[in-house]
Amino acid sequence: MWIALGVIAALVVGVFLWWRFRDPLRGEDFYKFHVERRWAWELILNEEQEQAFMAGLEAYDDESTVFLHREAGALRVYDPSMMVSLFLLAEQFAGLGPQALGDPAGAVRHLIENAARAETGGVLHLDDDWMAEPVDGMDKYDFTGAMMSATHAQGVDGGVGGYGDENGGYGMLTVLVEMPRHVARMYDDAHSHADPSEIRNRLDVYKAVIEEPEPEFVAGLESADAERSRFTNTLMYDYGRVLAGYRSTRPHMPHAQPSDVMSVVMARMLSDNLPGITWTRQPSPEQHQRAMELISTRG
Question: 20 to 30 Å CA-CA from 16: which of 49, 140, 196, 273?
Answer without folding.
Answer: 140
